[in-house]
Write a structure and sequence with these properties.
Number of strands: 0
Shape: elongated
Order of helices and strands: HHH
Radius of gyration: 16 Å
Oligomer: single chain
Structural class: mainly alpha
């Protein structure tokens, strides 16, 4: 029997939210060990900021 599509999407959403929280926690840990200038030089920080901008855009509707 195939899982319900709505249930699958809801579970995928929960997984994405969990992963997002984990990434945020890891980023906070990283920021405790490097300077702001070092962080700004990391390509991953630029991608995190891009993702945050997209999230803000989506939340505005």
């Amino acid at each position: 029997m195939m899982p319900d599509l709505t249930e699958t999407v809801e579970k995928q959403n929960v997984i994405i939210q969990m992963q997002s929280g984990i990434i945020n926690e890891l980023f906070q840990l990283l920021m405790q060990h490097i300077s702001v200038d070092e962080a700004d030089a990391l390509p991953v920080v630029q991608r995190i900021n891009e993702a945050a901008d997209l999230r803000k855009w989506m939340e505005r509707g």
